[in-house]
């Protein structure tokens, strides 16, 4: 696991799990469900986006996706307005290297497994054919 920290607008993403931040995000969600067109960006050209993404859309789909894409852009505009400077970063426990020791162990029950196998040819265990490839 890497020790790098992801940042959102200069704030570590671990800060977003702080209860104070969660409260603000809940308030933001309530606000965003009421207002969707808060950003200053122009409406997207869905036909151009579809062509760039190499997908084909019917004119009905173009009309349907335009407002939805604008709504998502509006949500990002609202995210930019959230004040994170007054929130103190939360502290998380270090979770690196929480793995068990990888020590080799000898397997003592080899003879018991070989005795229970229906078909065995030294050193292979024969199993029924799985794939129908000839």
UniProtKB/TrEMBL annotation:
The keyword Mitochondrion applies. Its EC number is 6.3.5.-. Its main location: mitochondrion. It comes from the Eukaryota. Belongs to the GatC family. Allows the formation of correctly charged Gln-tRNA(Gln) through the transamidation of misacylated Glu-tRNA(Gln) in chloroplasts and mitochondria. The reaction takes place in the presence of glutamine and ATP through an activated gamma-phospho-Glu-tRNA(Gln). PANTHER family: GLUTAMYL-TRNA(GLN) AMIDOTRANSFERASE SUBUNIT C, MITOCHONDRIAL. This is Glutamyl-tRNA(Gln) amidotransferase subunit C, chloroplastic/mitochondrial. It comes from Trifolium pratense.
């Amino acid at each position: 696991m890497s020790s790098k920290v992801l940042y959102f607008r200069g704030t570590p993403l671990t800060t977003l799990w702080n209860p104070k931040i969660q409260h603000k995000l809940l308030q933001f969600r309530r606000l965003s469900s009421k207002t969707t067109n808060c950003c200053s960006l122009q409406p997207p050209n869905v036909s151009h986006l579809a062509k760039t993404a190499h997908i084909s859309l019917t004119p009905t789909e173009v009309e349907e996706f335009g407002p939805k894409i604008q709504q998502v852009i509006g949500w990002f505009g609202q995210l930019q307005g959230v004040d994170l400077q007054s929130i103190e970063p939360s502290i998380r426990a270090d979770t690196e290297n929480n793995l068990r020791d990888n020590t080799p162990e000898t397997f003592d029950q080899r003879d018991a497994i070989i005795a229970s196998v229906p078909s065995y040819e030294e050193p292979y265990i024969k199993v029924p054919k799985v794939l129908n490839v000839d």
